[in-house]
Adenine deaminase
Amino acid sequence: MKRIIEAALQDRPCDLVLKNARIVNVFTDQILEGDIGICGGRIAGIGSMEGKEETDLQGRFVLSGFIDAHLHIESSMVTPQALSPVLLSHGVATAVCDPHEIANACGLPGIRFMLDSAGLSRMDYRFTLPSSVPSCDFEINGAGTLSARDMEPLLAHPRVAGLAEVMRIPDVLSARPGMMEKLALFQSDGLVIDGHAPALSGHHLQAYKAAGIENDHEAMTAEEAIERLQNGFTLFIREGSGARNLEPLLGGLLNAHMPLTRCCFCTDDKHIEDILQEGTIDWCLRKAVSLGCPPVEAVKMATLNPAVHYHLKNKGAIAPGYEADLVVVDDLKDFRIHAVYRTGQPVTEPAAGPAVTGQLEDTVHLPAFTAQDLEQALRKDQVIGLVDHELYTLNLPASSLTADDLASCSYVCAMERYGKTGEYACGLLKGFNLKGGALAASYGHDSHNIIAAGDSFEDLALAIHKLEEIHGGYVLVRDGRIAATLPLEIGGVMSREDAQTVADAALRMKKLARDMGVPEGVDPFATLSFLSLPVIPEIRITPQGLYDVKKRRFLDRD
Ligand SMILES: [Fe+2]
């Protein structure tokens, strides 16, 4: 404390001074010219400063380190440690993460692994604890149910910022005791409660807010965005790999002259190859300014607004006492990153080494089955219809399709993989179009059982058996042979490898899938992984069978 006061008074030199900066001040909407003095990892002062070390920024703009307001690290397929250098290189110094996927696969040991891996990272990861494990009562996951009592010991952890996306909306609206216990526990601790309210509106949305839920990242239209702001939610504007909501939401808010003080950027689910190619929150900034958003307003959505929302003290701004997480950019249009500082040190973090995870690497335990068994399990009267660029699916009676359409369908299989029930189900899938093989994954939202699709039961069986051998991940079979694998050994959802290795493998497999016929409007990985999530209409497949989401029942159980 004494050192930073003396450095601020200029009675002693700062550790580092960034000279000749144009500093974006998010409190006054000004761009100030001067030096930034850093001492002990914090900003000591701004103006004319002297330091033991000095770097001339030659008039470049300096922003506070970006904050991703909501992110599932597992969707990148790499560990927190491996993701850290990648996010930092794009200016993201802090991310609020929901370890929902590993929690479904591995429970508390999975969450603890994420906390430990975060602790080995240069980035500042904060966590919200998964509220909805499993996402539906009937789901079979690796972890079973995560209760308020299970989570309580983790509340005091310094990285825990709140309760993660409350997606079991019926439990909230019916004031179900298990959910009420979770909400009360986190409220009493003054932590933030995250929302997840797709298509919710009117009195249902208000009841959801009245329960204490504070933000939402599922708005898809400007009307939904405005209704959320009107009701006091903080609006998270999402730009992930699949869901791209920034243009409709921000465009609509700008048109309606809405204040943006309660808006933040988030990525939610973004694959590592997309992060490496286009960026994350820096991508949001570029896109926002291209839509006509004033640059300083855009910067606030990437810095101050999420810091205020999550009570992240001394983050999100460049002012005395604030953490010296700084991003140096060439301009406020393209936000091309010149340098990143984390707690006052330039970021030159090398790629992370392999993560050590022990018992989390043995989670794929399949029942005995053959290709003939899968064929016998096939349900032919109902078809899952894919919709281009959407996670939404159509519930199509087979009788409504032509013989050609039916013949072009893929077989899709969901199989329990934790050695619990050994159940599996097979159905027909229209629009995936993978020909001459099969693609299988242990990454299947939210319970992360096996999900696979292809045009022959032999190839499906081969791909699924290979998944067990590699302890989870993705397997592509072509012409009766294993054509590519992407092992995700950690809980069957994350790789031990570094980001570039995983991205290269993912891109190679996606290209193969495209060569085999998967059309442009279908993401081979994302589409497959959401086919088993029984909360997105109209129809899903889980190990128990085809599930009608609108009627909330399995088709077999009419
Ligand atoms: Fe999410």
Notes: Residues 64-346 form a domain with the TIM Barrel fold (CATH 3.20.20.140). Residues 10 and 69 are 36 Å apart (CA to CA). The first helix runs from residue 2 to 8. The mean pLDDT is 94.
